[in-house]
Design goal:
Strand order of the largest sheet: 1-23-22-21-20
Low-confidence stretches: 1-26
Mean pLDDT: 90
Largest sheet: 5 strands, antiparallel
Shape: globular
CATH class: Mainly Beta
Number of domains: 1
Distance between the termini: 38 Å
Strand content: over 45%
CATH architecture: 6 Propeller
CATH topology: Neuraminidase
Helix content: under 10%
Structural class: mainly beta
Number of strands: 26
């Protein structure tokens, strides 16, 4: 089915938004449901996935992994650049011999360089043998430093968010539960950094259900919020909130599963995106919605399906820009959606 025949699906005729807590968000929430455009921006390669998006030094940059398949192979990290968000060209490529580089995330380090946080895995076929997080830095988005290992072997740092000169992120690792007949699961910790290379553990996160992929953001009052994926138990994502110094967290279920979770705070509203699961694999979609400390409310589904989602989010003026990947047209490609938001100031 051609891309143009896909109709964007708004979830419901009315929007039952959560009442936004004044301690978490602003007064009037943004509602981002007016899809202005959806464009495929990368088609080359066999499997393109796991995106992120940023505006840096007057240009847009979109990053993602290129490989032979979702799992295994020697994944490389592609970086695209655009001056206008319409025409995209290759800008950089980060690779490491024998390593499957995955989950690239973009941020701007305190020294004003563009930073890629990413993971490096070693596979034998489809079997994971080892993994460790890495970082790569660039002053122009084109020339990148060689990936440098960070944290410990086995640690996977999924995203770094900077706040007042300090970077924060959630690292997760596989552990063995001796009380459950040595069944393996995930444990997550909050870590911090001053330079993107050296990290300290802030605290362990008391999240059950094999927590893994997570995004942490900050509110205007310096409170922090986390949206974290859970792989077992009821598989609902959890939402965590904390005050500085972010060592004590309050957790609530999000009300739904969220794969590849991302969120940003715009005009006091928490805008969220990720993979939404349905009753069958055919119902999987990349969604956009809102979030409070009490749950996630999906508002629309982007043209997507199958192997999809893992969005990058940037709010600019009155628009939410969403990079994501999807296989709904057959190939697993990279897309950019621009969504108009009402209530924007």
């Amino acid at each position: 089915m051609p891309f143009s025949s896909f109709v964007l699906r708004i979830l419901g005729s009315t929007y039952a938004l959560f009442a936004l807590s004044p301690t978490l968000c602003g007064a009037e929430p943004l509602i981002c449901t007016n899809v202005l455009s959806v464009k495929r921006i990368w088609h080359s390669g066999q499997h393109n996935a796991f995106t992120d998006l940023i505006h840096y030094k007057g240009q847009w940059f979109c990053t993602f992994r290129e490989s032979q398949a979702h799992v295994g192979g020697n994944g490389k990290i592609r970086v695209l650049a655009s001056k206008d968000g319409e025409s995209w060209t290759p800008a950089g490529l980060v690779a490491e011999d024998g390593i499957d580089l995955r989950d690239p995330k973009l941020s701007i380090a305190p020294d004003s360089r563009l930073m890629l946080s990413l993971g490096g895995s070693v596979y034998e076929g489809k079997t994971l043998k080892e993994r460790q997080s890495r970082v790569s830095l660039s002053s122009d988005g084109t020339n990148w430093s060689a990936p440098e290992k960070i944290l410990k072997k086995g640690d996977w740092l999924w995203r770094v968010t900077w706040h007042k000169g300090k970077g924060y992120g959630i690292s997760y690792a596989t552990v063995v539960n001796q009380a459950s007949t040595n069944k393996a699961g995930m444990k997550a910790s909050l870590v911090s950094t001053r330079d993107g290379v050296h990290y300290d553990v802030v605290c362990g996160l008391d999240v059950t259900g094999s927590p893994n992929e997570a995004t942490m953001r900050f509110l205007e009052n310096d409170d922090a919020v986390i949206l974290i994926r859970r792989e077992t138990e009821d598989q609902q994502a959890w939402i965590g909130t904390s005050q500085s110094p972010y060592t004590k967290w309050r957790w609530n279920p999000a009300g739904m599963r969220v794969g590849g979770p991302n969120l940003i705070v715009a005009n006091g509203t928490m805008l969220v995106s990720g993979r939404q699961h349905g009753k069958t694999s055919k119902d999987v979609k990349a969604f956009v919605g809102t979030m409070t400390s009490e749950g996630v409310q999906p508002l629309l589904s982007l043209p997507s399906g199958g192997d999809c989602s893992y969005p990058g989010l940037v709010f600019v003026k009155d628009q939410l820009w969403v990079s994501y990947y999807s296989s709904h047209e057959g190939a697993t490609d990279i897309y950019l959606a621009k969504i108009g938001c009402s209530g924007a100031k």
